Amino acid sequence: MAELLYRIGRIAASRRLAVIATWIATLAIVVCAFVAFGKTPSGEISIPGTPTDIVTQQLAAAMPGTAGTSGTVVFSTRDGTPFTDAQKAAISEAVARATGVAGVAQVVDPFVTQAQSEAQAKKVADGRAQIVAAKAQLADGQTQLDAAKAQLADGQKQLDAAKAQLATQQQQLDAAKSAPGVTAATLAQLAIQQQALDAGKAQLTTQQQLDASAATIAAQQKQIDSSLATIAAQSKQLEEGATLSQLASKIRLVSDDGSTAVAAVMFSGTSLSVPQELKTAVKAAFLTPAIDGVDINFSSSIAQGIPNLFGGGELVGLVIAAIVLLLIVRTLIGAGLPILTALLGVGLGALGALSLAGVVDMVSVTPILGVMLGLAVGIDYALFIINRHRRQLRDGYTVAESIALANGTSGNAVLFAGSTVVIALLALNLTGIPFLGLMGTVGAVSVAIAVVIAVTLTPALLSLVGMRVLRGSEKAHLVDQVGPAPVATAHPVPGPRAIALALVGIAVLMVIAIPSFSLRLGLPLGSADNADTTQHKAYDLVAEKFGQGSDGPLLVVADLPAGTTADQLLDDQVSIAQRLAAFDGVVAVAPIGASTDRTVTAFEVLPADGPSSISTEQLVNALRAASPLPGGFTIGVAGQTTGNIDISQKLADALPLYLLVVVGLSLVIMVVVFRSLFVPLVATGGFVLSFFAALGGVVAIYQWGWFGGLFGVATPSPVLNFLPTILFGILFGLAMDYTLFLASGMREAYAHGAPSKTAVVLGLRAGRAVVIAAAIIMTAVFGSFVLSDSAIIRPIGFALAVGVAIDAFLVRLVILPALLTLAGDWAWWLPRWLDRLLPNADVEGASLERRHPHVSADHLGPV
Fold this sequence. Notes:
Number of helices: 26
Distance between the termini: 24 Å
Oligomer: single chain
Radius of gyration: 43 Å
């Protein structure tokens, strides 16, 4: 590979204008592709197959209106007094305007909804009073009916007695008529009595009349019983509604003091991402015209824009990098070339990624990561080659000869170093997490572009500037020297001092790493943004006026039996809501609807604490573990809060495998490069310490809140859930870079006969300047992203800056040399059988230098 890069360097130097034109044309093509196909990437992070995703897909099929993304708009009066009627009317008009925006499914008017809720409470009270009155009226009717029944019974009894008396009199009369010796006078008298008896029978109420009265009374009783049954059903429905209303009473859209209101915005479709253009249109609908005396703030899902690819912070990093480069090379041209090539690589990588955002789902931080890496490694890789080229020019090499040799030696090291970073980033695809794998791929492409630019464009530019890459004083003292200057003598570090350096360095790293054991993963919420941002204000207002849980309500979905009727639906909703409300940490429960076939119903569950709290995470786990609920109701939990929990858990589960792969890869690569077992073990162990130390710094500042004001941490919160994985991959590759540039020099000195301890000093002396410069540049570039306006970008920039600084200045320049000094010859020991099996990497291109020794300046001809 060194020979190939040597030839590439010669060709690029001799055809410099063609190479430069090719890269300019490539940039133009990428810019055109961005203009034609570029799309704003999504700000949402999701992982298919998580419990939240499964529930969301279920909702999308059963209840499409509840499956899309939603956001909140928070209205508050500036003086803290209740809204006036005019302000309420203006807010309702803003809600109507936002409802008409294409892509918005619904906007909930807080005053209308709150009024409906209060009207429902009054309706319950009125309904109870009406039921009491109806029951009293039916009770009076029942009393009257009971009296009528009693009167009817008395009439029946009197009728039966009269009938019995008349029957007895009839028997007596019949007996008298049939008695022997009855005279005509007696018969005439008996006939008169018979007439009187018949007249008495005629005067009695007939049985038919009594039966009719009984039938009337029975019908009236049936009517009363029916009314009572209806009232009982209504009372049950009313009480169930009252129960649901009571369970949901703490879910409000207008604060108790009437000074704050929240309008919920539901977006169309089932996608979790909202186009930036739609967010802008929604904000404009609410903000124009302004409402007198009312502040309007938006939740993160509406307010969060796409972070700037290049802002003021990144400019600060570039300025620091330029200063460092200027201090090293002492010429404006030499300092400007690495920045120029890095900016070209950043443009290609970032714009290329954005051109694909319309084809693949890409989170907003993905192109930013490419910018981070492209700037950092782009500057460093060009610096490595330019630094070697300048040293060779000072040793008497011609421009063309030096360019080719620098590209074959330092360019070979750059290729190897870049390859390690690329491999580590591509390995992110092993996690099985799509958005993380894409981030790794974009980062790897950005690094690969930086490598290709370094070994092609850098030689062309160096050929173009010629000897102007040197200072005037350096050109004035050029000597015709064959090869590099003789190696100066060096004195090894004494053993006790090496022990002290190693122990102190390791102890410092372990102390810094202590906070990492308290690591909690999550995604940034509105509270993580700067205090003056609209999303932070919205988050704080909602927490203050409605409770912390209102910033992250849970969505609980329950399956219902097939064939559930409307009445059974209400019964089931009450039963499920009561069981959900019984969980610790639940403040309120409200049903939000059911599917048309009544097989699925959903609830909003308001937790007591915020979405990033431990108690809310425990509540989510408890709800999921309790499924199915008594009664056989299977439930699932979704929402932004559970999505963050699921993503964090998925990432945490995938991290060990990724760490194992990367660490194993690290050992194999370094055994091949350094032909040693000890150096890879020490280098890998140091890298692991650097990783946990960087993570400890992140936890201390962003999770615990130490020095929060200095780093813009408005509210401490869990660490960005994919940061450890990204940090490990990137830091691994960069740590291998520094190990390569230091340990390879030590190995070379040892191979040329220097004692092992002396070789450590010689290698350190030869490589430390460029490693220090590279580390300062990378720390400055990564650290500049701490000034970003994105709560996602800031901790990534901080972690990478701290990780690079710790690894370079403490591990590679202190601990590694100390341990190699203590190991002596054992540091470079390798079993013979393994030595025969391993390929010769020749990363520094020593064999190339032997094949292309320095010749007179006129041998290669003019450049």
